[in-house]
Amino acid sequence: MAKIIKMANYLILLGAFVVNVMSYNPLLTYTLRFKKMQVHNNMSMDDYKIDRYKDGEYINGKIKINSKEIIKKVIAVFYRCDSDGINCEYFQTWKFANVCDQLKEKNQIWSRWYASFDPPAVCPLNKVTYQIKNATIDVGAALLLYPLVTDYQWKVNQKFYTDDIFVGSYMIEFYFFGYRKKIMSILK
User: In this structure, are strands 165-179 and 117-118 parallel, antiparallel, or unpaired?
Assistant: First the structure.
């Protein structure tokens, strides 16, 4: 009888283990957390806010290009910071000489960001106000490009040019937040 009670206790403990531990995905799922966004020079931003829906954060607002120049070139400068976002160092620079072709590409780290612009961010990019709705970047693409991306906080400064004439820029600060997703039970 004592063996049966002991076996029942083990089964109860095993069941509790399965429910409380095994019901969560053992791998971390990542989402983006925005800290802030700033615009500089011939750009302005109105009604800017960071909203959280379900598991993600998104930037909403209006961004305006206050220049008659047509944007043809973008330079994105990446800075990686420690986990507190304090000590930052230069990481790398991406240069896009023909921004029109880059905006058309699908499944890129920036695709979800520019797909959130209304009117659509298509060429020519010139003096216009864009409504940004639920803007974010593709976390999966970021992880593929640099698997250690989640170990840092990031500052990205995008600078916009017409040939060699500086039009404006914006800086976005963000980090990746890891969590475990609960697995939906198929047994009910």
Answer: unpaired
* Number of other residues whose CB lies within 10 A of the CB of residue 154: 21
Contacts of 124 (CB under 8 A, 6+ apart): 70, 71
Query: 21 pLDDT exceeds 60?
Result: no
Q: What is the pTM of this model?
A: 0.77
The per-residue pLDDT for 22 is: 46
For residue 103, the number of C-alpha atoms closer than 13 Å in the C-beta half-sphere is 18
Q: What is the 3-state secondary structure (H, E, C) of the chain?
A: CHHHHHHHHHHHHHHHHHHHHHCECCCCEEEEEEEEEEEEECEEEEEEEEEEECCEEEEEEEEEECCCCCECEEEEEEEEECCCCCCEEEEEEEEECCHHHHHHCCCCCCHHHHHCEECCCCCCECCCEEEEEEECCCHHHHHHHCHHHHHCEEEEEEEEEECCEEEEEEEEEEEEEEECCECCCCCC
Q: How far is CA 13 from CA 6, 18, 22, 187, in A?
A: 11, 9, 13, 19
